[in-house]
Amino acid sequence: MKSITNNWTCLILFLLIAQVSLAQNTDHDLKDKEQSELVEMKGTITEINKETREVTIIGSKGELHTVTAGEDVKRFNDIEVGDVVTFSFYKYIKAEFRAPTEEELKNPLVVLTEEGKADANLKPGAAIGAVIQAVVTIQVINLPFMYVNIEGPNGNFTSIKMKDKELIQKLHVGQVVILTYAEAMAISLEKAD
Question: Does the pTM of the predicted model rise above 0.90?
Answer without folding.
Answer: no
